[in-house]
Amino acid sequence: MFIISEIFPQHGGSLQVAEQMILQSKLGGADAVKVQLYPASMFPGADGASRDYLELDFDGLKRLKAYADQVGIAFFGTPFDFERLDWCLKLDLPYLKTAARTNRENPALVQAMLDTGKPVVLSVPSDMHFDEVPHAKQAIYLYCVMKYPAFLEDMKMPDFKNSPYHGLSDHSIGIAAALWAFAHGAKYLEKHFTLSHGDQCGTEQAHVGSMTYDELVQIHRTGRHMERLCR
Q1: How many helices (H) and strands (E) does the chain have?
Q2: Does residue 149 have a cis peptide bond before it, meaning omega lies within 30 degrees of 0?
Q3: DSSP of 154-189, one letter per residue?
Q4: pLDDT of 87-102, one tens digit each?
Q5: DSSP letter at 195?
Q6: Domain range for 111
Q7: 137: which residues sit within 8 A by CB, 6+ positions away?
Q8: pLDDT of residue 197
Q9: Residue closest to 3 by CA, chosen among 223, 228, 184, 208
Q10: How many angstroms separate the CA atoms of 207 and 99, rounded?
Q11: At 82, which CATH number?
């Protein structure tokens, strides 16, 4: 069982908050922490407002990587362009992650990540056939419903014991989908992390579908029990 705690954009643009999230993710039982790397112009607010405050530069990425190393948790990122992929390679991050949307919007970037030879966590949109995404031995494929947040009614998950998917990229409210996935053979879980479901920094929707520290602890403990039962 491998739990990835996604802390962006719930950090709200504060590196200090991001470090707090890294520490809580470590203490709560996550195996890795992930950030999103994109130019803010790619994701304008619903009213057209700038989200420059959410953009992480190279120096910020380097700082967070150093802090994660200090507390003893793996740290990596989702680059949305080739420049930010280069940042990940310069810092020798142990994994790379593709966003589900990138499979359609920038397949060349997905292939470039796979060509690095590093383990790539590849989110596959639920409305996209598995054979439509590139295949590689080092790829870790996650089933993903692209709604923020997603509801349990949206989650038509595969039986992970008998499918090419290795796990779940979970945007659903609560932890039921995560626990269902582990009970049905998932080995990997990616879920957004928040200090509070009521936070408004970043995007409100991201906090609603995120896990808190207490929920992470519950996922970790119960997931371990389910992993033993599924052997």
Answers
A1: 8, 8
A2: yes
A3: G-----GGGSS--EEEE-BSSSHHHHHHHHTT--EE
A4: 999 999 999 999 999 9
A5: S
A6: 2-229
A7: none
A8: 77
A9: 223
A10: 18
A11: 3.20.20.70
